[in-house]
Design brief:
Elements: H1 7-19, H2 26-36, H3 55-73, H4 80-89, E1 98-107, E2 110-119, H5 129-137, H6 145-152, H7 163-175, H8 177-193
Antiparallel strand pairs: 1-2
Helix pairs in contact: 1-3, 3-4, 3-8, 4-6, 6-8, 7-8
The structure holds fe (ii) ion (2 copies).
């Protein structure tokens, strides 16, 4: 289990894993994350799982571990490089997305200023969470259909409410069970491995 506090160690694991993937464009993506984003220090959420600096990085590694275990458990084949790509990059849209804000909070009867994570108010581009990640990744390299399905449907039933989304989700989860396991790996990481920070 990866903890947000171990930011430097986690970053090394993350970079080594991505560099082990033989796909043109990985180096450019790593350079982008390093120089143009806050990916390595961003939280994974504002008030739920891993809502602290380094939370997003640790979350992606937890998803990687859980996803591998679930695939083994159900004996479902998926190339190692695909497991790495979908796990480590499924929430890439969360970089440059959170900001620390000062808020007033009553602590022991006294108002004090505390720093809390908040969303940037303008989502760019204005597209849903999962698709924003897919779109960012394909600016660097192509994804296989299997990888794209895993990332696009990683929110499971929370990714959309319309009839078509729900029936496609059912079909994709049935025809490509790794997508269901990936959604589960994300849930396991969020609810079982990661904490909420006050
Ligand atoms: Fe996500
Ligand atoms: Fe996630």
């Amino acid at each position: 289990m990866y903890k947000p506090e171990a930011m430097e160690e986690n970053k090394k694991v993350f970079v080594d894993l991505l560099q082990s993937v033989d796909r043109k464009g990985i180096d450019k993506l790593l350079e982008y994350l390093e120089t143009k984003t806050d990916f390595y220090t961003a939280p994974a959420s504002t008030k739920y799982h891993n809502n602290c600096a380094g939370g997003l990085l640790a979350h992606t590694l937890n998803v990687y571990e859980n996803f591998k275990k679930l695939l083994e458990l159900r004996e479902i084949e998926m190339p190692e490089e695909s497991i790495i790509l979908v796990s480590l990059l499924h929430d890439i849209c969360k970089c440059n997305y959170y900001v620390l804000e000062q808020r007033n909070k009553k602590i022991n009867g006294k108002w004090e200023q505390v720093a809390v994570w908040s969303n940037t108010k303008s989502v760019s581009p204005p597209l849903p969470h999962s698709y924003r990640s897919v779109r960012m990744i394909i600016q660097f390299f192509r994804l296989t259909p299997q990888e794209e399905y895993c990332i696009f449907y990683h929110m499971g039933p929370y990714g959309g409410e319309d009839y078509e989304y729900r029936s496609l989700l059912q079909k994709v989860n049935t025809d490509h069970p790794e997508t269901l396991l990936f959604y589960t790996a994300d849930l396991f990481s969020t609810y079982l491995d990661e904490d909420t920070y006050e």
